[in-house]
Structure prediction request, 207 residues.
Amino acid sequence: MTKTLPPHSAIRPLAVQDVDAIVEVSDKAFPPDQSATREKVLYRLQACPELCLGLFIRSYDAKDKAKNSDGEDDQLPHPTTSVISEKLVAVILATKMRSDLITKGSMGIPEGPDDEENGHKEDGNTVGVHAVCVDPEYQGKSIGSILMNDYVQRISTNGVASRIALIATDENAPFYEKLGFTNQGKSDCKYPPGVVWNDLYFDLSYN
Prediction:
């Protein structure tokens, strides 16, 4: 079955002005102890917005709808139409790391300019994906896999890093394995307490 996005979908890099919408989607998709705080989301958007991607459903001015060959309203907006609103439905948040696999520090926020352990490291060669979430209303429509495939292609094409790494529970790991990620087994990450994670990675240098 061909995977397609809902009508009027658009994938674009996230920005600081999207922070509230991101937190809303994250809070809906994750248990409270796994959802990123607003502080962490804002830090990632400020430190490396080019690594953060969102899928939006856009609304257009009705008077600008395109016409099909029969003169009726088409599903697609006119090329020159303006967007009047966007609804964020899926999110990827990430930073760059010096390590090959996700660490607790990579998920954190630096405590100062000399903090070598926590947060985004611009000279890192691994993109650490810390959140992949889809609004529950839109789950089951292949949006997560389409967004992740798009993300992997963007990182590879842009030469940002040679590897993408993430952690996933036993329940979610097969989703990433189907996308080409290698499951290396149990992760050393133990946050939040009681949750067991698996380390997964995708080596871009081999593609």
User: Anything to note?
Assistant: The chain has four helices and nine strands. Strands lie at 9-13, 53-60, 65-67, 73-77, 83-97, 126-134, 163-168, 182-186, 198-203. The first strand starts at residue 9 and ends at 13.
